[in-house]
Amino acid sequence: MGDLVSEKFQSVDISGIEPEIGAPAEGRVISGNPQFRTWNVEEAEGGLYAGVWESTPGKWRIEYDEWEYCHILSGVSVVTEDGGEARTVQAGDRFVIRPGFKGSWEVIKTTRKDYVIRA
C-alpha cells in the first residue's frame, strides 16, 4: 500500500536531479546572455509540468501559449507586458501568467522560481 501512496505524492525536491540546461529561443534575446537551468519534477498527461527554473541575468522576449503559476524563490526580475507596466518580482512573489501574454522577462539578479505550467 505504501507504494501506491508515494505514486500520488510528488515532492518538489531537486536534490539529485540533473537540470536541463537552456536559453531563450533563437532571436528572442534583447540583452545579456541569459542561461537557464530547469529541474522538471512533474510531467503529466495533458501538458502539465511542475518544477524549479533558474536564469542568469539578461533580457528576452516572452510569448505565452500556456498558463503558468510562478513563485519566486530568489533573485530579482522585471516582467513587462507589451503596452503594459513593468512588474518587479522577487523572493516571495507569486503570480499567474495567462495564455496570450507577450512582453519581456529581464533577470536583474539570478532568479529561481517554482512553476506549474498547464499547456
Automatic annotation (TrEMBL):
Residues 43-115 form the (S)-ureidoglycine aminohydrolase cupin domain. SUPFAM superfamilies: RmlC-like cupins. InterPro entries: RmlC-like_jellyroll (IPR014710), RmlC_Cupin_sf (IPR011051), UGlyAH_Cupin_dom (IPR008579). Pfam families: Cupin_3 (PF05899). It comes from the Bacteria. This is (S)-ureidoglycine aminohydrolase cupin domain-containing protein. It comes from Pseudaminobacter salicylatoxidans. The lineage of its organism: Bacteria, Pseudomonadati, Pseudomonadota, Alphaproteobacteria, Hyphomicrobiales.
